[in-house]
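Write out a sequence, fold above all:
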Amino acid sequence: MKVKRARRPVARRRGGMSGQRVLKAEAVLVGGVALAALCWEWPSLRREMRIWRMSGGFRAGNRYP
C-alpha cells in the first residue's frame, strides 16, 4: 500500500521585502543623494577649478601658500 505525503501549502511572504531588494533600494537612494549633491555643487566646483587654473594649477609649485 502506497501512502501519499500530504503537501503543505507554500509559505507566502507577508508583504515583507527581501534583503536583496532592500539593498537595491538603499543603493538607488544613496546614488540619488550623491547625484543631487553633485548637481547642487557643480557651479561652485567649476568656479574653484577656474581659480585653481588661473593661479597656476600643478605648475604653481610653492608660489602660493
